[in-house]
Protein 1
Amino acid sequence: MHEVIQRLVQASGLDAVTLGVILTGTEKVARTNLGITTVEQGFDVLKSGARRCIDVGTWGELKEQFGSLALVIAGVQEVMRFDGLNIELSAVPKGKEIT
């Protein structure tokens, strides 16, 4: 998939093409994250014509180099890019508000 996407980028064709992929890898993480639980359901999604934009990042390169460890590496990379959030939380246990 990585090579196909790179060729589309080189040809400036990303906006003109819909790419359908049936995810069957051993990790099944991408398929599960997309809400597709079976290969058959993946074909049903393709037949429906529904489109989704997904960020494929550098996953293909990481997986080729590191196998299953690529999941951990990608997670650490995402954590390093995360800026954090300012959150104010209020709870009301037994009628008394705590902030």
Protein 2
Amino acid sequence: MVKRCPRCGHVFECRSNDIAHCQCTRVLMPHGLPSWVKELYNECLCEDCLRALAKEASDEAESSSKSS
């Protein structure tokens, strides 16, 4: 199914009905990120946005662990 990413507007193929081949399974997301994304967005995000959010969350976690 073709969708438009609600975060960036990019058109992508969502395979939520075939999760083994869904682009979101290629993104390593930190704990808690999937539920946070679901709270903010009503639709699936494209792989680029998922990667960007995962990187931001990972960088933030790393930064806070260094300051502890």
Protein 3
Amino acid sequence: MLAVGNSKGEGITVEQDRLTQYHDHCYQYDASGNQTVVIHPQHSQRREFNGFNQLLSLSHKDGLSRYE
């Protein structure tokens, strides 16, 4: 199990207190710290947030989900 505050080891990268790589998963964040992209060899996700940091949409291999 990964404890981000104590992340150590090969294949784990933390930058500016954000997990950016965990083995074959890569993560990207917006300026507010919301996780906007997850990339994995078999799948990926993109997330869109509003100015209140609320999730607006989630794009994945099965389609697009929108939240209001």
Protein 4
Amino acid sequence: MLVLTASCTTVTAPTRTAEVEPVFTGGESLQTLLPTAGEGAFEELRERLAVFERNRYGQEWTTTDLLLGLVGDLGDLAKLVQAHEGKRDVADLDRALVHELGDCLWALIVIADRLGVDLDDALQTMSSDVHRWLDDQAQ
């Protein structure tokens, strides 16, 4: 089972405090992030999509295909952010933002899973790297 636990931490600039407060805590499985958050929901949805892709396109989407889809979704999200800032008109903006953020999150989760990257480890590594960088900038 793929597990994502968001364990990002906060920083008091310009230097890190002795005790860092977590912004997110968890241990939730990916199933809790999905609309049908039941046991195996992530795997079931991935399998349903794979069947659809094989039937429609003759093959499942590759990791590259997923990445290209993510790029398109990020472009759609950028337009919705513009709408949120009053620079575009979008009907039912809140629903559209939730949908597009979900699309982007889904693609990132699936890409990470296919590449064998643990997203919790990735967030922890990024957080540590940024803390070190900020500490260096403060000196």
